[in-house]
C-alpha cells in the first residue's frame, strides 16, 4: 500500500480459489489460533469475496486484500496487490 497514514482498515493475505465472476475473486485466508483451554493451535480458514476491477487475478495467486465499503451483498473487500502469480 502506498498510503503514508495509518489506516484502521484490515489487510489480509490469502489465496485466490475462484475467479469465475466478473470483477470478483474469492480469496481464502488461513489463520492459526490457540485454543483457550487446551493451548493447542488450530487452523481456521475463511473465504472473502473481493473486488478485482481489472480481472487480473487467476486461481492460485497469492493476493493482499483490504476492507472497504459494501460493494454488493457479500463483497466488502478490495484487491490491493498480487503478491505471487500462480505457476
TrEMBL record:
<keyword id="KW-0687">Ribonucleoprotein</keyword>
<keyword id="KW-0694">RNA-binding</keyword>
<keyword id="KW-0699">rRNA-binding</keyword>
<dbReference type="InterPro" id="IPR019984">
    <property type="entry name" value="Ribosomal_uS17_bact/chlr"/>
</dbReference>
<dbReference type="GO" id="GO:0019843">
    <property type="term" value="F:rRNA binding"/>
</dbReference>
<comment type="function">
    <text>One of the primary rRNA binding proteins, it binds specifically to the 5'-end of 16S ribosomal RNA.</text>
</comment>
<dbReference type="InterPro" id="IPR000266">
    <property type="entry name" value="Ribosomal_uS17"/>
</dbReference>
<dbReference type="InterPro" id="IPR012340">
    <property type="entry name" value="NA-bd_OB-fold"/>
</dbReference>
<comment type="subunit">
    <text>Part of the 30S ribosomal subunit.</text>
</comment>
<dbReference type="GO" id="GO:0006412">
    <property type="term" value="P:translation"/>
</dbReference>
<comment type="similarity">
    <text>Belongs to the universal ribosomal protein uS17 family.</text>
</comment>
<dbReference type="GO" id="GO:0003735">
    <property type="term" value="F:structural constituent of ribosome"/>
</dbReference>
<dbReference type="GO" id="GO:0022627">
    <property type="term" value="C:cytosolic small ribosomal subunit"/>
</dbReference>
<keyword id="KW-0689">Ribosomal protein</keyword>
<dbReference type="InterPro" id="IPR019979">
    <property type="entry name" value="Ribosomal_uS17_CS"/>
</dbReference>
<dbReference type="Pfam" id="PF00366">
    <property type="entry name" value="Ribosomal_S17"/>
</dbReference>
<protein>
    <recommendedName>
        <fullName>Small ribosomal subunit protein uS17</fullName>
    </recommendedName>
</protein>
Amino acid at each position: 500500500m502506498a498510503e503514508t497514514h495509518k489506516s484502521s482498515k484490515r489487510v489480509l493475505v490469502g489465496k485466490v480459489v475462484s475467479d469465475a465472476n466478473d470483477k470478483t475473486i474469492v480469496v481464502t485466508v488461513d489463520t492459526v489460533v490457540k485454543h483457550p483451554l487446551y493451548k493447542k493451535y488450530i487452523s481456521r480458514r475463511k473465504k472473502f469475496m473481493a473486488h478485482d476491477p481489472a480481472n487480473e487475478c487467476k486461481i492460485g495467486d497469492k493476493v493482499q486484500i483490504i476492507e472497504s465499503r459494501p460493494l454488493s451483498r457479500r463483497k466488502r473487500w478490495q484487491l490491493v496487490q498480487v503478491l505471487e502469480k500462480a505457476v
